[in-house]
Design a protein that fits this description.
Layout (H helix, E strand, L loop, with lengths): L1 H20 L3 H5 L2 E6 L3 E2 L4 H4 L6 H10 L5 E5 L5 E5 L1 H9 L4 E7 L4 H15 L4 H17 L7 H9 L3 H10 L4 H8 L4 H4 L7 H17 L7 H52 L24 H16 L7 H17 L1
Parallel strand pairs: 2-4, 3-5
Antiparallel strand pairs: 1-5, 3-4
Amino acid sequence: IEMALKLDKATTSANMIKNIASKSSEENQKKTVKNIDVELIDFNEDNDKIFNVDNLESLMDSIKRNGFEGSIEVFAKGNGRYEIISGHRRYLANKAVGNTTIPCEIKEEPNDIEKADLLVISNVTSRQLTPIEKGRAIVYYKENVLKAGGFKGNVREEIAKRFGYSSSNVHKYEALTKLSKELQDLVEAGYPFAQMSAASSLSESEQRTLYDMLMEYSEMFPDGIISGTRIEDYINRIKEKKEREQERKKDSDKKAIDKDDVIQNQILTLQQNEEKFISSEEPIMNEPVVVIEPVQKEYVYYADNEVESSVERLVGLLSQDYQFKDREKVKECLKVLEKRIKDF
């Protein structure tokens, strides 16, 4: 009996996830569809934490022209009300166009894990999600389905399989959730998510610096496109600056330690001389104390490499057969650079 209990416990979590992913045909036969008053239907509160429910105009126009064909999925809460499992945007669109009832596919009330799974998977498989929404969905699924269900396998691979994403993209989408609100807004606006995800390793202040650099570039070239290569370059610059500051701090700390060693050695010499004086019958002169000041070596940052690489990129850009929207503006920028070179 004890062995059977252990075996049952070991397979419980795996079976739970499997059962959520594939409902039995017997359960599907129990589904019924009926029109329900929209005022009796409640949202799943977690939906707004993950998915956007704005930009309903096209869906509303379709409902106005063709009516609403299909249904949303709900379960009865036991108090005469219903809660949406899947179909929050369809519900809002119907309500916005003035429909007082909506066809609902009534399912049995799910447990918390099943409810979380249905919420995420129904949206992932039926909607075009933004990278940020995908990241939030991954984090939510990891915590509320896999972790809550005691899943013991490879989490990233399991999510990739369930969501239909590559394993590497699962990592990148999740990393987006660690970005600042400003950087997340840029991803939502169309900035390349793969390169932006690398900024998740930056601190809060460093992410702010990255945002300022991107905005400065956008102001200089309002019609320009922020490429993934440029984002990577900015992130690398920030990381390199951090490394230089850490090196300077190490040098500063070492100088402070060296100075403390000099002071301690002088104090020790004084103490030894004092002991000699006290123990000797004849007074002796104290040995002269030489104060040795550590050499203050100021850290110098040389920009030679950055200038050289910038020139190479610029020459390569101008030597290729690229199209320029405003060649005169580019020439003005080059004149500014030429003046800086003359003044150098």
